[in-house]
Design a protein that fits this description.
58% helix
C-alpha cells in the first residue's frame, strides 16, 4: 500500500511538473534567456556608447556645479536629483532626475545623453516583457513562482534524481540522452535555480505584495508599507543653505572607511527639507547598498538600516544583488550567465521531451522550434537594426512573431501530422 501511494504521488508530481512547464514554457524560455544576458547589461551599455569618458573617481567638489548646470538645462529644480558614480562594472558618471539624463566627464563637463536602445530593450524584456510596468513585472514574478514550483515538483517526481546525479547514457536514444541532461542540469543547478526564482518572484511581485500588505496592515497606505520595509526618510529642517558635498563624503569616510559610494540623491534642493543621501556598498555584505543621510552641513543624520536594521529589511534589500549577480566581479557575471543558460536549456529540453512522448508531429512542434530559434535571432536582428535608428522593441517582437508564424505555417501546410516509429 505504501508503495502504491508513493508511486501515485510521484505520478501526480510528474503530471504537475509537465503541465506547469507546458503552459508556461514560452514565457519561461524568453524570461530565462533574456535574464541570462541581462547580467551583462553594463558591458552592453558600454558597447553601445563606447566613446563616453570612463574613470574611477568623480570629485565631490564637482557635484554642486554639475547640479547647477543640470537645473539650468532643465529650466527647473528637480524634486530629486541623482548622480550615479563610477563603479568597476560601469566606470562612468551620469546625472538624472529620472527623466532627463547626461553623462559627466571626469572634470564635470556634460557629455552625451545615454542612448542604449538595445540594452534597455533587453532589460525591459526580462523585467516586464515590454508590458506596462506593474502588469509586466507582476507577470514575470508569477513566472518566477511557476519555475520554483517546477523545481520542487521535479525533485519530488524523480526520487532517484540525486542518486543518478552523474548518469548520462550516451549510447541510448536521443530522447533518453536529452532526458538525462535535463535531469542532471536540473539537479546540479538546484541551489541557483531556487535562489534566482525566489528573488525574481519577490522583485517582480513587490508591487502586489506591497499593495496586499498595505491593505492588511496600513489601511491601504502603500507608502507606509514601503517605509515599514525599507525605513522612512528623516525629517530635516534647514535654512536652504548650500549643501557641503565634500564634507558629507569626508564624514562618510570617517564613519565607514570601507564603504564605496555608488550614487547620491539630493532631495528638495534649496528648500527647508533638503536632504542628501549617499548610497554605498559595504564589503562582504549582500545588501545592494547602505544609504547614509546627511544635513546640508555634511553631518550624518542617520542611515537607513539596510545593512544593520531589521532582518527582513536586510533580506529584502539583498534580493537585487543575488538575482543579478552584481558582486563587483566580471567572473561572477560569467557564472550567472552560464547558470542562467543552463536553466534555459532545462526549459527547452523539458518541453522537447514532452513533445517527443506524443509520438507524432504537429504545428505545436514547429511553433516551439520557431520560438526557440526565433528569440535569439530576434535579439540579434534588433541589435543590428538599432544602428539604423529603428525602434528595438518593435523590431524584436515584429521579427519574432513574423518569423514564428511563417515557419509554423510553412511546416504545417507542407507536412501532415507525422507519427514517429
Amino acid at each position: 500500500m505504501k508503495t502504491f501511494f508513493t508511486k501515485l504521488n510521484i505520478r501526480q508530481s510528474l503530471n504537475v511538473h509537465s503541465w506547469l512547464g507546458l503552459w508556461f514554457c514560452g514565457l519561461i524560455y524568453i524570461i530565462c534567456l533574456s535574464g541570462s544576458f541581462s547580467v551583462l547589461f553594463e558591458e552592453f551599455e558600454r558597447l553601445e556608447q563606447p566613446y563616453i569618458s570612463e574613470y574611477d573617481y568623480f570629485k565631490p567638489e564637482l557635484i554642486a556645479p554639475a547640479i547647477a548646470e543640470y537645473n539650468l538645462r532643465n529650466k527647473k529644480v528637480a524634486d530629486i536629483i541623482y548622480i550615479v558614480l563610477p563603479t568597476e562594472g560601469l566606470p562612468r558618471t551620469h546625472i538624472t532626475d529620472g527623466v532627463q539624463e547626461w553623462f559627466l566627464a571626469e572634470d564635470g563637463q556634460f557629455e552625451d545623453q545615454p542612448h542604449t536602445p538595445w540594452t534597455s530593450m533587453l532589460k525591459e524584456l526580462h523585467t516586464s516583457l515590454h508590458l506596462p510596468t506593474i502588469i509586466g513585472m507582476s507577470l514575470v514574478g508569477f513566472v518566477g513562482v511557476i519555475i520554483f514550483a517546477l523545481v520542487i515538483s521535479g525533485i519530488i517526481a524523480h526520487p532517484r534524481i540525486f542518486r543518478d546525479a552523474f548518469l548520462l547514457r550516451r549510447g541510448h536514444s536521443q530522447r533518453q540522452q536529452q532526458t538525462d541532461l535535463h535531469n542532471r542540469l536540473g539537479v546540479w543547478g538546484i541551489p541557483f535555480h531556487l535562489m534566482i526564482t525566489l528573488t525574481g518572484a519577490f522583485i517582480g511581485l513587490s508591487s502586489v505584495l506591497i499593495g496586499i500588505g498595505a491593505a492588511l496592515y496600513f489601511d491601504g497606505d502603500q507608502q507606509a508599507m514601503v517605509d515599514a520595509i525599507y525605513g522612512p526618510d528623516p525629517i530635516i529642517t534647514s535654512q536652504g543653505e548650500a549643501i557641503d558635498y565634500e564634507q558629507a563624503f569626508a564624514s562618510l569616510q570617517a564613519i565607514q572607511p570601507n564603504a564605496k559610494p555608488i550614487y547620491l540623491a539630493v532631495h528638495k534642493l534649496g528648500s527647508e527639507q533638503q536632504l542628501l543621501e549617499i548610497a554605498a556598498t559595504l564589503p562582504e555584505r549582500l545588501v545592494y547598498s547602505e544609504i547614509y543621510r546627511f544635513n546640508p552641513a555634511g553631518e550624518l543624520v542617520d542611515q537607513q538600516g539596510l545593512s544593520n536594521g531589521p532582518e527582513g529589511r536586510q533580506i529584502a534589500y539583498s534580493t537585487y544583488r543575488l538575482h543579478f549577480g552584481h558582486f563587483d566581479s566580471f567572473w561572477v557575471k560569467i557564472i550567472y550567465l552560464i547558470m542562467g543558460l543552463s536553466l534555459t536549456y532545462v526549459c527547452i529540453s523539458g518541453t522537447n521531451i514532452w513533445l517527443e512522448k506524443r509520438k507524432y508531429t504537429s504545428w505545436v512542434n514547429h511553433a516551439w522550434k520557431a520560438w526557440i530559434w526565433g528569440v535569439p535571432l530576434a535579439l540579434v536582428i534588433s541589435y543590428l537594426l538599432t544602428h539604423l535608428e529603428l525602434e528595438a522593441v518593435a523590431v524584436f517582437w515584429g521579427s519574432l512573431i513574423t518569423g514564428t508564424c511563417i515557419y509554423t505555417l510553412s511546416k504545417t501546410m507542407r507536412v501532415q501530422p507525422e507519427y514517429q516509429t
